[in-house]
Design brief:
By secondary structure, this protein is of the alpha/beta class. It has helices spanning 7-15, 36-51, 76-83, 100-114, 133-141, 156-171, 175-189, 203-208, 236-240, 271-284, 301-310, 319-324, 341-345, 349-364, and strands at 19-26, 60-64, 91-94, 119-126, 211-213, 216-217, 227-235, 247-256, 293-295, 378-385, 390-398. It binds coenzyme A.
């Protein structure tokens, strides 16, 4: 399969403008006592302040949110734009389930690259802690093929459990290997002040934790989190007025897989990841070896294992093994999720993809403190919707 790599795309790559990630901001993830709309403002204000721009310079607003209706609030755009003092700018809310943040960023990127805008704000925000676990699980399941999956009892933990079983069956992946992903991500989150969890765990803790959907146990799962993250996306020309340290968006990949697992050829793989990766790498003209770390979508431990395989950082079926061997540790050969990932940093659905980009910004600026990946110059974010129906992926590189 080879999508979006034809002549029009090649031509567009030649004419598009260079795009810069000017700044980011984020609330702490976890349980927050404000609305999604208020959290969005906190993250946005931090991003604007860090960029050193005035609110009136923002020309468009892309919002990523999935569940604001549970707070009895839709149409977040004009509310957030008005609170920022720019009620006239075009504002658009984007929903592609858990990939909404990456997708909103992609739209901002494409519009700046095309020359529509010079300076765009992306805000991802979510609040779900007012829902009990059954209600939250039900709302989340609307992101699957509800009519065939959720209505028959397949929640997201259940669907990922089926993917984990398929992976174990085909490749011999073990529960211990999956547990090693959780241990690493909890360790990384210890050094992230904005993470949902600050709790060191062992493989034994994971294996002994209560079963959620066999073979997935409590510590194999991401939590329900609240939180918001923001990013300012600008043309190179605009960005140069505010900073000498330019973080370029080198590649942007977007693809779709069959939404329901029963429509997939292989339940142990997410085809959209591979497609989006090929697009972004080709556009960035970079090889995998040149990428210093990855922020991947580890909503369940098996998801991280599948991601590193489908992204091509190891052979299919080797993901569990290399995780267990420490290859994906912060000081390993391919650091994965230095932020703590969805597993331990948290997964406030609409915010998640923008939060990954926040981590990239802090790492590439050398501002990640104790979780800093030494010498990181190039990074990748991989954001998945549901069981992989959507993939939004970006590659960033700090200018020399
Ligand atoms: C795993 C899950 C069912 C646990 O929910 P729960 O049973 O209601 O758990 P509770 O909220 O009662 O929390 C009980 C304890 O476990 C902790 N906890 C909850 N979820 C956790 C998780 N995923 N990882 C680690 N600890 C977790 C809580 O902090 C709490 O700890 P405490 O007793 O020290 O305060 C829920 O987090 C879940 O469904 N996660 C997946 C969300 C999802 O599907 N997202 C979409 C992905 S595509």
């Amino acid at each position: 399969m080879n999508i979006l790599l034809g002549e029009p795309f090649r031509k567009w790559c030649k004419t598009m403008r260079k795009v810069v990630l000017l700044s980011t901001g984020s609330t702490k993830y976890g349980r927050i006592d404000v609305t999604a709309r208020e959290a969005a403002l906190t993250a946005a204000k931090e991003a604007v302040e860090k960029a050193g721009i005035e609110n009136r310079e923002i020309q468009a607003l892309y919002i990523s949110n999935v569940f604001s209706m549970t707070e009895r609030q839709g149409h977040l755009g004009p509310l957030i734009a008005t609170s920022l003092g720019v009620p006239w700018i075009p504002a658009l809310t984007i929903e592609t389930a858990c990939a909404s943040g990456g997708t909103a960023f992609r739209e901002a990127y494409a519009n700046v690259a095309a020359g529509f805008y010079d300076c765009v704000l992306v805000v991802g925000t979510e609040k779900v802690s007012h829902l009990d676990v059954v209600t939250a699980t039900t709302y989340f399941s609307y992101g699957s093929d509800y009519q065939f999956e959720a209505v028959n009892g397949a929640s997201f933990p259940g669907l990922y459990a089926a993917m984990a079983r398929a992976h174990m069956h085909q490749y011999g992946t073990t529960e211990e290997q999956m547990a090693s992903v959780a241990v690493k991500n909890h360790e990384n989150a210890l050094h992230n002040p904005k993470a949902h969890f600050h709790k060191k765990i062992t493989v034994e803790d994971v294996l002994k934790s209560r079963v959620i959907a066999s073979p997935l146990k409590l510590y194999d799962c991401c939590p329900f989190s609240d939180g918001a993250s923001a990013a300012i996306v600008a043309s190179e020309e605009f960005a140069k007025k505010y900073t000498d340290t330019l973080i370029y968006v080198m590649g942007s990949g977007r693809a779709t897989s069959p939404a329901a697992l029963f429509d997939r050829e292989n339940m142990a793989s997410i085809p959209a990841t591979n497609l989006a990766m090929n697009q972004a790498l080709k556009q960035a003209k970079l090889s995998r070896k040149e990428i210093d770390f990855l922020e991947v979508h580890d909503c369940f431990t098996i998801a991280e294992i599948m991601a590193i395989e489908d992204l091509g950082f190891c052979e299919k079926g080797e993901g569990g093994k290399i995780s267990d061997e420490g290859v994906t540790a912060r000081d390993g050969e391919i650091p994965v999720n230095p932020s703590g990932g969805l597993k331990a940093k948290g997964h406030p659905v609409g915010a998640t993809g923008v939060g990954q980009i926040n981590e990239v910004y802090e790492q590439l600026m050398g501002e990640a403190g104790k979780r800093q990946v030494e010498g990181a110059m190039t990074a990748l974010t991989h954001n998945i919707g549901a069981t992989g129906g959507t993939c939004s992926l970006h590659i960033f590189r700090r200018g020399d």
